[in-house]
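**Protein of interest**
===
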Amino acid sequence: MSSNRIGACMSRTLFLMHLVKPSASAAFIQPVSMLYGTRRMHFFEASPLKYRTQWTYVPPKHARSFSSSSEQFLKETLIRMHSASGNKDVQETIPSKQKEEVSSKVDHGEEEIIIDDDLELEMQRVLKEQEEEDADYVFEGPKRCGTVAILGAPNAGKSTLLNTLVGSKVAIVTHKRQTTRNSINGIAMEGGTQVIYIDTPGIMAPKPKQRLNKAMVKSAWNSARDADEIFFLIDADKIIPGGTGPGRIGRKSAPLTLPVDPERLKLRPGTNEELIMSRLTERRQRYSLILNKVDELEGDRRGVLLQLAETLRLSAGLHDNGESMVKKVFAVSAKTGRGLDSLKAYLKDSLPLGPWLYPVDQISNIPMRNLVAEFTRESIFLRAHEEVPYACYVETESYETQANGSIRIEQTIYVETEGQKKILIGMIKDLSTRSRLEMMKFLECTVHLFLKIKLKKGWTDNNQAMYDRLGLDFNA
């Protein structure tokens, strides 16, 4: 299935925006599928585009009239689309006479709900289209659904793993540390199990004055708090001696001698990996250990994997129930996909029983305007150097679908200093080209991108509003 699946629901919703013509802050509803007597109702806001899902019971047949008292909630939900959403802008788009008729229906649970004819026809078309897509995914048996938090040190390969597991790019990937700024969800189907992966910022010990890093680390731990499964990702090439890539002091060019002393395979005190393992032990949260980048291991170094896995499992200690803190150990390559089949098989049978929370063709719950902002931030990370990428924040001001099918996107890049602003102005043409090509590849249509750069001095340290936009805790 194409990478454009992420917009399968959102693109139809944007079409409804033009139909209903709400203002920039209007909320509206899109019914997208019906499975086993339940319907997912997706709520969006145009600016900023927000998304959430709830389940409600509906009868087997889609009808315009709802009279059963058991369907009162669905009825009220549909009415809110026109009048009771708490959104004055939506109410202003409804003729006064119709508003009176709709409000009169609220007090009469047995009467028909009035829905605009054009909107109803479009809703029915969207519902039929989604049902046809869901029908292609045939599964009989108990359903499972759960969340999997992916934790790890910076540059461990968490975002690459997420993209490979989902089968599409939902998280940006660069060679720089701390590219992921807040938690990102990716959704995948494994048989009858819907897996919601949570990519988290790299966990490290931030310095006292690094407010942004502290907020990012707190976001990562919050994501792991209520997850059904935790994946602790470790760069195996970084741990096993004899590697030529980046590594810890004393191990970067240390030769490999067999047999390997187990002490050389333990996580050293003060490292980010040891910090994560210690914190998980303190929180009494069991996890699966993912040894990543095995494709970088050659010769005798590959034979050390089993010893590394056993050493780390013993180092993790025991849970209160007497079992190891490490549930499972997987050796994988997020880059090539090697070893991921066994990981998926494990999740398929281990996540809790429950209904699916998202349509089967949806691969993320990230708002599209947030996703395209991430593409631009990725370009900044790849093009700029030193502190510039970490001091940038990209916000999508406008995301509009044109009559010819192209998309017009306006974005603002915020920086902290005049020097950073001048640097980005000098490369803005290249940034625009890089970002636009990535967006066109993902959206599979023509994109017109307009970038502007604004100065917001010291926003990483003193601007709580910016942290709120990022979904980070300013007081972390």
About this structure: The chain has a mean pLDDT of 76. Residues 6 and 332 are 26 Å apart (CA to CA).
